[in-house]
Design a protein that fits this description.
Layout: H1 5-9, H2 12-27, E1 34-39, H3 41-44, H4 55-72, E2 75-79, E3 88-91, H5 92-98, E4 102-103, H6 114-122, E5 126-129, E6 136-140, E7 153-156, E8 162-163, E9 166-173
Parallel strand pairs: 1-2, 1-6
Antiparallel strand pairs: 2-3, 3-5, 4-5, 6-9, 7-9, 8-9
Helix pairs in contact: 2-4, 4-6
């Protein structure tokens, strides 16, 4: 649990806003990038995942995410719980533009989770998609969002490692490095450095 008393003074929305801002900076997020959010509102309250979902907690998390998204302009998808196979709530327009597989279900607190259920109601034209390849992700309460991140995931250590009572994990993805010992990953200073003979 959090040991710094100053972290306890932050609201849940502020904890989320700070953490997501750090992730955005570390991962170079910009408009059009996809961020997957997984959240157990039960864990945020200090209870076991899947036992005590709370819309009031989901509202605060949604608010923190909205603050950062409003500044940067990335897209957000919200992961459902295992009862909906960890499908994601997404704006239908985004899902269709990206060619994501749309699936049929409406998330509710007991099948999808409070966070996904709230996000579904907040969007003007929501849908569920089976999977995505997100550029970054925020996992609040160990909800296992890794299946929806692009390879290669790079962990980011947040300055606020807890959201409420839930452990926070976050990562961004980077392109795969290809090649062997002769590969170059940044522009060389010399025009013939790294060229094949």
């Amino acid at each position: 649990m959090t040991t710094d008393p100053k972290e306890k003074e932050l609201s849940i929305a502020e904890q989320v806003e700070r953490s997501l801002t750090e992730l955005a900076e570390a991962g170079g997020l910009r408009p059009g990038r996809i961020v997957a959010i997984g959240c157990s509102t039960s864990e945020v309250q200090g209870r076991r995942i899947g036992t005590s979902g709370a819309e009031s907690v989901a509202e605060q998390i949604y608010e923190g995410v909205a603050r950062v998204r409003g500044k940067i302009g990335f897209e957000v998808v919200w992961q459902c719980c295992e009862h909906l196979n960890r499908a994601l709530v997404a704006p239908r327009e985004l899902a269709e533009a990206r060619g994501w597989e749309i699936v049929s279900a409406v998330p509710v607190r007991r099948a999808g989770g409070s966070m996904a259920a709230l996000a579904y109601r907040k969007l003007s034209d929501p849908c569920l998609v089976e999977s995505v390849r997100a550029d970054a992700g925020l996992d609040i309460g160990e909800t296992l969002i890794g299946m929806h991140l692009r390879p290669v995931a790079v962990p980011v250590r947040p300055s606020v490692p807890w959201i409420g009572e839930a452990r926070l994990t976050m990562a961004f993805s980077r392109p795969k490095l290809i090649g062997g010992e002769r590969a170059v990953y940044a522009l060389p200073d010399s025009p013939d450095a790294g060229t094949c003979d």
